[in-house]
Amino acid sequence: MNRTFIVIVRTAVMIAIAGIAIFPIYWMVMSSFRTHEEIFKYTTLSPELFLPVEWTLQNYKDIFLDPSKPFGRYMLNTLFVAVIVTAIGLLVNAMSAFAFAKLRFPFKKLLLTVFMSSLVIPYEVIMIPQYLLMRDFDWINSYMALIVPQIVWVFGIFMLVQFFSDIPRDILDAARMDGAGWSRIFAKIVLPTAVPALITLGIMTFLNQWDSFLWPLVVINEEKKQVIQVAISSFQSLRNISWGKILAATSISSVPILIVFLFLQRYYVQGITMSGVKG
């Protein structure tokens, strides 16, 4: 009886915590169907707080039918950049992590230490020299400026190094004795064992790129090449804040992230909890 009571209390507490976490998202979605005047009209606990009184799709029509701010184009731009950075970044970061974790070369520990030390440097510090580099390459206002600097992610390499370090060295040595090269070992042995970690890193990379704001704001000036977070910020100004448009755009921009996480959450949790292959 006591155990059943504990389970009930624990479940109730978890449901309450989940409800507190989900309510802002629910309120955001419901408010996107409200008129501008109604969004902040109801602040007390009442049915009107949870459901719109006057349902409207005008906010969604405004963001998708405005020719001066093509919201659909912004989403496609963001999706394109996020997918390319995630795909290439996974390959590059995985190869770098494998080299640091399993290969032997001079000054490996020193290079890894210097490389990891960049994690403590604020992004704002390197943004200006990075911008100047993009300018010298003539990549300002191009997708290359959004993609290339974001491919190498030090945190992603550090995460995969921890995972690859747990792969038994004997497996790799046996493959080497059978005549397999490092590239084949990486493709046939290492990558298949690292699927949960790679999916976890992929979700994190995709999310970072989807939510990217500061760097696109700096390097992209052309309206048709802008990304979604910068577009959402353009719905507010010093004199007017279009909360209906902001809530509708934010609701739409949350859909791809939710879809990706719902389909890959099992691998995400597995990649976070497991430390690698145990020998």
Largest β sheet strand count, sense and barrel closure: none
Average pLDDT score = 86
The rounded Rg comes to 24 Å
CATH class of the largest domain: Mainly Alpha
Percent of residues in beta strands?
Answer: under 5%
The residue fraction in helices comes out at 55-70%
| Structural domains: how many | 2
CATH topology of the largest domain: MetI-like fold
Structural class: mainly alpha
Q: Secondary-structure element sequence?
A: HHHHHHHHHHHHHH
CATH architecture of the largest domain: Orthogonal Bundle
Low-confidence stretches: 275-279
Number of helices: 14
CATH superfamily of the largest domain: MetI-like
Structure description:
It is a single chain. The chain is mostly helical and 279 residues long. It folds into 2 domains: 1-55, no CATH class; 65-276, MetI-like fold (Orthogonal Bundle), CATH 1.10.3720. The protein has helices at 2-31, 47-50, 58-64, 71-102, 108-117, 123-136, 143-147, 154-164, 169-177, 182-193, 195-210, 214-219, 228-233, 243-273. α1 runs antiparallel to α14, α4 packs antiparallel against α11 (195-210) and α8 (154-164) runs antiparallel to α11 (195-210). The longest helix has 32 residues, at 71-102. The protein starts with a helix and ends in a 6-residue tail after the last helix. Residues 275-279 have low confidence and may be disordered. Keywords: Cell membrane, Membrane, Transmembrane, Transmembrane helix, Transport. The chain crosses the membrane at residues 7-29, 74-98, 110-131, 143-164, 185-207, 246-264. Pfam families: BPD_transp_1.
